[in-house]
Structure formats: structure tokens, C-alpha cells
Amino acid sequence: MKGLRKSFGDRTVLNGVDFEVRAGELVVLLGANGSGKSTALRCVVGLAEADAGEITVHSGRAAMVFQQIHLVRRRNVIDNVCAGGLAGLPLSRSLTPALFPRDLREKAMACLDRVGLADRARDRAGSLSGGQQQRVAVARALCQGAEVLLADEPVSALDPAAATQVMELLVELAHRDGLAVAAVLHQPDLARRHADRVIGLLHGEIRLTTAAAELSDVDIDALYAPDRVPA
Ligand SMILES: Nc1ncnc2c1ncn2[C@@H]1O[C@H](COP(=O)(O)OP(=O)(O)OP(=O)(O)O)[C@@H](O)[C@H]1O
Predict the structure, then answer these.
(1) Mutate to test the pocket of ligand 1, among 6, 37, 205 (most ligand atoms within 8 A of CB)
(2) 226 C-alpha vs ligand 1 centroid, how far in Å?
(3) Domains along the chain?
(4) pTM
(5) Closest C-alpha among 34, 159, 142, 160 to residue 151
């Protein structure tokens, strides 16, 4: 992302944001409410349109998961994952999931296996726990052929154990499978524990970039209580 600018009316939300996420790393975006984190990710997947700047996805597709998980709760898990691969199907087949082709179902099963939920494929999505549903959402993103995975507050609705499981999955997808993973979090401690790098946004500008292990309390104050920290 290079020189990204975005305003809503007269409010500038992104004011020249540059960053990159390499294959094989997990980058966490931190920043106070309204600092522009979600907008930056949304621009990458086309949910928001930047006013200026460049976004380049070097390989595969970019797909996004959200705090609100958006599964079809009454459908089974595998159909939800297959839905990630719908872009490759003619419309008539995409509307009749019974006709999901075998190769798509096999791909979806492999993605579910990847997130540790192959044994829940036939269960109704709504019967899974929040953490399991978030892992299904990740499987759906993988089934879209994502090599760039964006996650907007993926663990905000989860209890600590489920949050850790989802974060560990994101780490594995980066480190073991070589995806480029960027996650917005509101928990600096989770960023310290799981991320490779942290990018901090303040009022639509990058205020810090650091190795996660070196994220200090002063850095955190600079993002969340900037009036207490000299610029
Ligand atoms: N569709 C929109 N229309 C108008 N304003 C918007 C829209 N989307 C975002 N904004 C504004 O852009 C600013 C940044 O929002 P954004 O959601 O990117 O911040 P954030 O850092 O992700 O915040 P949070 O941590 O609260 O989710 C906010 O002031 C928000 O009100």
C-alpha cells in the first residue's frame, strides 16, 4: 500500500499510508477507534475505494474475515466454505449448493482440515462456537484462493482461549503456509505475543512500525493516549 488517501466528506481518514505485508509474516495493525485501520484493509479488498495511492497484491487473492462472522448459520459448515469458491462457478450452480461440484467440495474439505474442523463439516454452522465459526470463516477465505488474508478484529468477540486459537491459526497460515496476513486488533498483548510486526495508526497516519517483540508501553501510549507522550 503506497500513499493511500481516503476521505469521507471533509474527514480525512487515511492521510498517505504506506506499508507492506510480506508473504510469510503476520502484521498487526493497532490504533485507537477511528484511526483508519479498517478502512485501510477495506480498501485492499474493494469494500472501500481509496481516493489516491496504490495497492498491489503480488500473488493470489486478498480475502477478509471480520469480527461479525457472517456465516449462513442454518447451512452446514462445508456449504459455507464452498461459498468461498463460488466466484469460479456459473451463477446457476452457485445458487444450488447441492450442485457444488466435487472438486470444490474437496477443496473446501481441505481448507476445513487446515483450520482443524474437518470433523464438523456436516454440522450446522450456527451450532459451532464463536471461535470455531471464525475458523470456518478463515477456511472460506482460503477456499477463495486467498494468499493475502486480512482480518478485521477477528478475535474481539471471542473468549481468551478461542482468541489464542484463532491467533495461532493466523500465525501458522503465515509462517507455515506462506500467506501474507494482516490483522486489526484492539489487544496490544495479543499483538506482542503473536505478530511479527506491528504497525500503529494515529489519525490516519502511520505513527510506528516495530517488531512485535519490541512493542513498548510507551509505543502503546503513543497510539492510545498520544496527549501524554511527546510526538
Ligand atoms: N462508510 C463510511 N462513511 C463515513 N465515514 C466513515 C465510513 N467508514 C469509516 N468512516 C469513518 O472513518 C474513520 C475511520 O474509521 P475506521 O473504521 O477505518 O477506523 P478504525 O481504526 O478501524 O476504528 P475502530 O477501531 O473503531 O474499528 C472514522 O471516523 C469513521 O467514522
Answers:
(1) 37
(2) 19
(3) 1-60+146-231 (3.40.50.300), 72-144 (no CATH)
(4) 0.92
(5) 142
